[in-house]
Specification:
single chain, two-stranded antiparallel sheet
């Protein structure tokens, strides 16, 4: 059996022109510089629009807190220089 209604390659291309994937827009956190999605809280430092929304250190153990505090301090110093 032959194809009754054949589509040309240009017609197929026109149909598929809207199938392209969009690039996900990301931004850098203003506090620590980690890449985050827009309009979301930074999971690294817990800040959103320059204000602390989540206390990241509250759920960590004592040893993890020291490591995280040191890491955040290094990131902050690296950003300012």
């Amino acid at each position: 059996m032959t194809i009754r209604m054949r589509h040309t390659p240009s017609h197929t291309g026109n149909r598929r022109s809207h199938h392209a994937l969009l690039i996900n827009g990301t931004q850098k956190c203003t506090k620590c510089g980690v890449v985050v999605l827009p309009h979301t809280t930074c999971e690294n430092c817990g800040f959103y629009k320059g204000k602390e929304v989540i206390n990241v250190l509250a759920k960590l153990s004592k040893k993890e807190k020291k490591i995280k505090e040191k890491e955040l301090k290094e990131q902050e110093q690296g950003k300012t220089t």
